[in-house]
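Propose amino acids for all 225 sites.
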């Protein structure tokens, strides 16, 4: 078998894997988000809490298996690692307690894989992923902060308010994290806020240009008539 044939078969296998795994992984990502919310907001006995954590870890293991499978199916593994470096780091870092919340962030990426076109991805980002990101960052900062000595964010409602203020880049300063994990989440949310502004700008620009092109086309047709 020639090199080109092996590359073609590898690309076909990768495409089939992603087509089959996308929806199940997105469903597992939503389940993971729900479990994380239950863990943070619920008051459970140690045995029940352990069960939730165990299920969450099983789901996370499936995410890792998906990454490893795609890595070995790729013919250009170095290029694959460079392209998916953020996902790799996000899969490894949450093994440390301080980065546990970042599991939730990478889980959101599996939801985005459902969309095939750029416009669909933008729609999913604005309509689903961004609200979920605000909610999960609220959970993460509340989990990190509410028991810390001298913390400003001690109620979940305060965490939600802080997340909205931060992601919109307003930053009133009435609530702010003091722990390392809370500040790491804040950086993530700030970067997401910048991405939000960029996405909204691109969306409106695309709509405006599309509308302008449509009007010019119609005027051209009218003049020819």
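Proposal:
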């Amino acid at each position: 078998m020639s090199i080109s044939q092996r590359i073609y078969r590898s690309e076909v296998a990768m495409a089939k894997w992603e087509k089959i795994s996308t929806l199940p992984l997105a469903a597992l990502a939503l389940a993971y988000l729900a479990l994380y919310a239950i863990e943070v907001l619920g008051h459970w006995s140690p045995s029940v809490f352990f069960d939730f954590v165990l299920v969450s870890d099983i789901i996370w293991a499936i995410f890792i298996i998906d990454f490893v499978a795609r890595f070995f199916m790729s013919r250009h593994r170095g290029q694959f690692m460079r392209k998916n470096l953020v996902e790799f780091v996000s899969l490894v870092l949450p093994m440390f307690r301080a980065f546990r919340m970042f599991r939730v962030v990478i889980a959101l990426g599996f939801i985005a894989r459902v969309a095939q076109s750029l416009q669909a991805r933008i729609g999913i980002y604005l309509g689903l992923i961004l609200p979920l990101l605000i909610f999960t960052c609220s959970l993460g900062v509340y989990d990190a902060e509410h028991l810390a000595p001298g913390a400003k964010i001690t109620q979940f409602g305060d965490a939600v308010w802080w997340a909205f203020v931060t992601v919109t880049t307003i930053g009133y300063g009435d609530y702010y994290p003091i722990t390392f994990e809370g500040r790491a989440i804040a950086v993530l949310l700030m970067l997401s806020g910048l991405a939000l502004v960029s996405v909204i700008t691109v969306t409106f620009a695309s709509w405006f240009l599309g509308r302008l092109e449509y009007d010019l086309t119609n005027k051209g047709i009218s003049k020819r008539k």
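The chain has two domains: 1-114, 117-225. The mean pLDDT is 77.
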